[in-house]
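Recap from last week: sequence in, structure out.
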Amino acid sequence: MQVQGESLVQNSGQFKFGNDLRVARLGFGAMRITGKGIWGEPANRAEAIRVLRRAVELGIDFIDTADSYGPGVSEEIIAEALYPYPAGLVIATKGGFDRPGPDRWVENGKPEHLKAACEGSLRRLRLERIDVYQLHRIDPKVPADDQLGTLKDLQTQGKIKHVGLSEVNVAQIEHARKIVPIVSVQNRYSVNDRGSEAVLEYCEKNHIGFIPWFPLGAGKLAGARSPVSDIAEHLKATPSQVALAWLLARSPVILPIPGTSSVGHLEENIAAAGLKLDANAMRELGER
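Predicted structure tokens:
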């Protein structure tokens, strides 16, 4: 199942952040356009640029990144590929990690770090304001109120439009909303990893965007037969496409952001927006 002709992205439906930013529900995650270990330059920078441009060409209008991807590399490549940005393109980024080296991540929610991280993202992305800025993690070493208060201050200063969270539980979301409005939550979630079910249900009730990271759970989709592979075979699709279609069908607040460094894989992912799972398929996949 491949992309042909006009974009299928709009088949994914739409979601609105706050009262103003409307995007298609199938976005692009820009973590993988960096080097091994999410560190340094990608193996093929030109291909990374082609992926981003092809994504927008095919109707993607929501790109998710972070200052820690590279670090800085993902944001720089996004700007190189797409600036000046087309009207309606929403770029979400994140801050809250230090990167000591490849595959190494250390929370840093100190206010001075978050302020510097936001400034760096604005500079690399060539923006005056970031549409959606997400706290990459709530740092347990720093009072949560200080971290969230910093984001509120940046919002008041006009450097951030909307605020989101990542890897949080329901209690943390409720606490955060007492300090600053929250428009999105980014937690690990897929057809094979449903540990954030309670968070998803909370987001659905409160119209908060739920952005599943690692939406394909790729390692578990390959190899042995499963309901996902059986349905994919029946629909003449790939297991990854079925996994994405399941996410889109699971809840109207889910915005999958599959990432890739390959144009071919990008087009395969986008084609999932045109894949419809019937009630039997959803039942087989354990939709609750």
